[in-house]
Design a protein that fits this description.
There is one protein chain. With 68 residues, this protein is of the alpha+beta class. It is built from 1 helix and 4 strands; from the N terminus they run ββββα. The longest helix is centred in the last third of the chain and has 13 residues, at 54-66. The protein is flat, with a radius of gyration of 13 Å. It starts with 13 loop residues before the first strand and ends with a helix.
Length: 68
């Protein structure tokens, strides 16, 4: 059986434009995993990563932008 693990050891993370620079709410994502969006807390770079289906990520971001 194939492994369902994603190797994120050499990942290039992108910090959300909504994150602040004073160490507050900082979310980072990766854009280069087909059909998935890995998300992490930039204050915990070696901590857990949430992996979201790309189809669910777009509606989530849209809701955040509209404040829903």
């Amino acid at each position: 059986m194939a492994s369902s693990r994603i190797d994120l050891s050499a990942a290039t993370w992108r910090k959300s434009s909504y994150s602040n620079t004073s160490g507050g709410n900082c979310v980072e994502v990766r854009d280069d995993v087909p059909h998935l969006v890995p998300v992490r807390d930039s204050k915990r770079p070696h901590g857990p990563v949430l992996v979201v289906p790309a189809a669910a990520w777009a509606p989530f971001v849209a809701s955040v932008k509209t404040g829903l």
